[in-house]
């Protein structure tokens, strides 16, 4: 019969229609597994996705925030009394600021020629001062080797003279431990138009100004002692003040707005930010300039060591929304179907009698034709018929042909090419 061979297999498969058929398996193992998996998936969705992750909420992760800081306290440093204007920089009360705890001052510097102060520029003759990179050190090298003191000679520079000597030992301002930091933070969740500040509403906070932040007793107080911040970040104040360092004061606003805005409260936490790098510590230089009476310009150079505080605000807010609720509910119901996949794998591969179940589950069915109908002539050019071939019925359709229906090798022809086994409609046969 030439007709079936002309029709490739993939064409037949492409033009076949698949429809699910329900097979009820009366097996305790599969049945119990199925229910257990369904229960697990359901528990996961209810417990984790909905209750814990609050998947029914619309979430706003864009937090708009503004931070204003103010440091208070009086310190003593090298015979002088310092106030906020002396040791806080920048003075505007930004979210990133430095409390200077140690200073190396180089006063009365003027433009001119002088010997370099760094040990690396030690020299014996002018030759040692040539060919060096001119950008290191405190100024431009003139190429001369000049006496630094009675015993030492160093290269001469042109620049601010005398150059800074930063290897000296200077004290630290220990009073900074008792300074207080006041943080004013207002936030807004634009999606919900929700606004809040870290201060109690006007009229409510009577003791604002006297409270001190404490992680357990006063977790909402916006006034923090610097020593506490350093301690809560796991650092030692004396060490940190000597080397300088960067600390983060994190304010977290994680809000469930379904429970009311009053429950939306800030949470403070503290870490050190520069502790991971090898070059720990924080310092910077700045200078103040003045003119002397003789008209020359002078400056005071300061190398300042201090604790830099970065106030970082993060957070998100959630509120019930119908769209995420629907999407996640549908996802939950769809996922329950995963149990079927698992049970199919067990049923068709690992259970005793898997072959038997396989045979019952997969079944191929041909187009139905009435068993008593006279074999019609195929309409010319009918679908899947091979034009130009004569295909007389080879055998009268019979209900007995049903037994040959299941995925047997003889039924792989074209739908139209093998009309002879047209009665294979399930095991019950054709009425
Ligand atoms: C900080 O204040 C406490 C109590 O007022 C005081 O005992 C302590 O000496 C102060 N620390 C410094 C470094 O001044």
TrEMBL record:
Record-linked Gene3D superfamilies: atp-gated p2x4 ion channel, atp-gated p2x4 ion channel domain
Function: Receptor for ATP that acts as a ligand-gated ion channel. Extracellular ATP-activated non-selective cation channel. Plays particularly important role in sensory neurons where its activation is critical for gustatory, nociceptive responses, visceral reflexes and sensory hypersensitization.
Subcellular location: Cell membrane; Membrane
Record keyword Membrane present: yes
Gene that this polypeptide is encoded by: P2RX3
Membrane topology (UniProt): Multi-pass membrane protein
Quaternary assembly: Homotrimer. Forms heterotrimer with P2RX2. Heterotrimeric P2RX2/3 has a ligand dose-response profile that is distinct from either homotrimeric P2RX2 or P2RX3.
Keywords noted in UniProt: ATP-binding, Cell membrane, Disulfide bond, Glycoprotein, Ion channel, Ion transport, Ligand-gated ion channel, Membrane, Nucleotide-binding, Receptor, Transmembrane, Transmembrane helix, Transport
Cited InterPro entries: P2X3_purnocptor (IPR003046), P2X_extracellular_dom_sf (IPR027309), P2X_purnocptor (IPR001429), P2X_receptor (IPR059116)
Positions annotated as glycosylated: 178
Transmembrane segments: 330-351
Disulphide linkage map: 114-161, 123-145, 129-155, 211-221, 255-264
Binding site residues for ATP: 70-72, 180, 283-285, 303
Protein's recorded name: P2X purinoceptor
Record keyword Cytoplasm present: no
Chain spans, region Disordered: 376-431
């Amino acid at each position: 019969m030439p007709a079936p061979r002309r029709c490739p297999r993939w064409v037949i498969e492409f033009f076949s229609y698949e429809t699910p058929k329900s097979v009820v398996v009366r097996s305790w193992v599969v049945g119990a597994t199925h229910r257990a998996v369904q229960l697990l998936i359901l528990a996961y969705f209810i417990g984790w996705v909905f209750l814990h992750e609050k998947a029914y909420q619309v979430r706003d992760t864009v937090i708009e925030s503004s931070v204003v800081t103010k440091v208070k306290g009086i310190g003593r440093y090298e015979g002088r009394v310092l106030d906020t204007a002396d040791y806080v920089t920048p003075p505007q009360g930004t979210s990133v600021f430095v409390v200077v705890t140690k200073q190396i001052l180089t006063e009365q510097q003027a433009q001119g020629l002088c010997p370099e102060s760094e040990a690396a520029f030690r020299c014996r003759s002018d030759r040692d001062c040539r060919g060096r990179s001119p950008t290191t050190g405190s100024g431009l090298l003139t190429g001369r080797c000049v006496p630094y003191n009675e015993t030492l000679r160093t290269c001469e520079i042109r620049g601010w003279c005398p150059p800074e000597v930063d290897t000296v030992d200077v004290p630290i301002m220990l009073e900074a431990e008792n300074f207080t930091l006041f943080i004013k933070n207002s936030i807004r969740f634009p999606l919900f138009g929700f606004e809040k500040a870290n201060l109690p509403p006007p009229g409510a906070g009577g003791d604002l100004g006297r409270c001190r932040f404490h992680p357990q007793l006063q977790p909402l107080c916006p006034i923090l002692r610097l020593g506490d911040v350093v301690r809560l970040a796991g650092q030692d104040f004396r060490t940190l003040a000597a080397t300088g360092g960067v600390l983060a004061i994190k304010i977290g606003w994680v809000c469930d707005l379904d429970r009311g805005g009053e429950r939306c409260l800030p949470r403070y936490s503290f870490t050190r930010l520069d502790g991971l790098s090898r070059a720990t510590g924080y310092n910077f230089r700045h200078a103040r300039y003045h003119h002397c009476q003789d008209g020359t310009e002078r400056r005071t150079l300061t190398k300042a060591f201090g604790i830099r505080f970065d106030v970082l605000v993060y957070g998100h807010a959630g509120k019930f929304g119908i769209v995420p609720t629907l999407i996640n509910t549908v996802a939950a119901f769809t996922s329950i179907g995963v149990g079927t996949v698992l049970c199919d794998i067990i049923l068709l591969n690992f259970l005793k009698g898997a072959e038997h179940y396989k045979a019952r589950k997969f079944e191929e069915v041909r187009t139905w034709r009435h068993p008593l109908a006279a074999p019609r002539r195929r309409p010319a050019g009918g679908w899947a018929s091979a034009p130009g071939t004569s295909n007389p019925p080879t055998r009268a359709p019979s209900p007995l042909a049903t037994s040959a229906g299941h995925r047997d090798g003889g039924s792989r022809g074209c739908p139209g090419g093998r009309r002879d086994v047209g009665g294979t409609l399930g095991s019950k046969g054709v009425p």
